[in-house]
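pipeline/complex-builder :: batch 7 item 3
reading input block
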Amino acid sequence: MVTVPEILELVRPGETVVVEHETSYAPEFALKLLADYTRERNVPLIIDDNFDSLYTLLIHCKMLGLDVDLSHATVIKIGGRREVGGRVKKVEFHPDPRVLLNNYEAALADAGGTPEKPAINLTLGIENILYFVRDVRDFYRFLLGLQRYVGNRRRKAFYLVHTDLVKSLPPYVHSELRRIATGVWIFNSYPTGVRARVLRSPNVELIGREFTIDVGGVVRGRG
Amino acid sequence: MVEAEETPLAAKEDVLSILDSTGFGGIFLIENYSSVGAELMLYSIVNYAHERGLPVLVEDIFDAFAGYVRHFEVMNLKPPMEHVKVIKIGGVDEVGNVVSRVNFEADPTLYLQKKEMAIERAMDGERYVYVVTGFERILGFQRDVKGIYVIASHLRESLGNECRTTFTIIEGNVIESFQTSPLPLIEGVATSVLEIHDAEGLLRLKFKKSILTLLKGRDEVFLRPADVVGWW
């Protein structure tokens, strides 16, 4: 078994990792583990919260008895109404990806992270944006916008993506998301944790490796 | 994924603790792929609420609840119904204590607003076990992804509402036959997700997510239908 910090150290600054999961508490666990890791190590944490995804996860965490402290996090909020987390920066949703990405760029500018101390950037609910992207041209505008952040050494980005949700979108969406990513991790949950399989990584020794992240111990249930 | 140990049959206490695990503010999604799983879960929920002294409010979408209750009759099941109120969403078959009727609207925003008002009136600030039946039908009537999205967002809004512990019963085979299955989106919002399958005379309850799997390290249990019938 490896520890979460060990796994995160294996991700290089500038990476965009797509983390694919099925219906499970994998997103809740990821949020909890990243929040703890960044707070303990004084690493900047940026959460892209698309359409109240973060609120949903925090409610679930509360019901699981998972204590998630996000006071140190910057939350970039696109759409939705529930402002949760540390410093919240609102980005107005716009159906035109060019406008949306422009708005986003401005919010990200002073969100933290340097090449020496890259931020962890957790992106939640990106499928919700893809839902609104209704034609191929807009999809590529959006995708190429995301691709421009690949290699930005101020952050290590993790896009949490629900596999079945992405697969319900036009078939090229899933493949293209994987294509622009530098890393692809597949999360399979088991009763008390998550098994992560590395499908793609710039660190070729990691390809095909499997990690087990057990969280049984941190869950205490509702008081 | 089951660990090597043997999976025993669930007892009444196990089912009660499954139902208890959602808690107020939670949304428990029950996806039925089995023959009698939906009826027996509904039967268990109504009895569970009665034992816990909690009133029940049923959202009966397009007569789904009426259908289940008619099955109760031929199955010779007699759940207590005096603590159960029903809000009709569309449909014509008024079974149980119908307290409100909401016409189906093609625009989900309108239907959701009217429905919320009906719920507020029926609950009147009290804590309720809230049961949704026929959810797949309202989803099936949506003409585009946006309609589905509006319904999912509304579900998200009600997450954490401590006046309700919500059980949404969905017929899995129906919803999966839609061109674009809304299930992953809805599952993401739910606090607990349970699938029910037939398994050689038993019902297999498979947890896709549940606090119980974390606490007990097991993500499936089996139910013998005759046991459930005998519990109440």
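note: The radius of gyration of chain A is 16 Å.
queue -> next item
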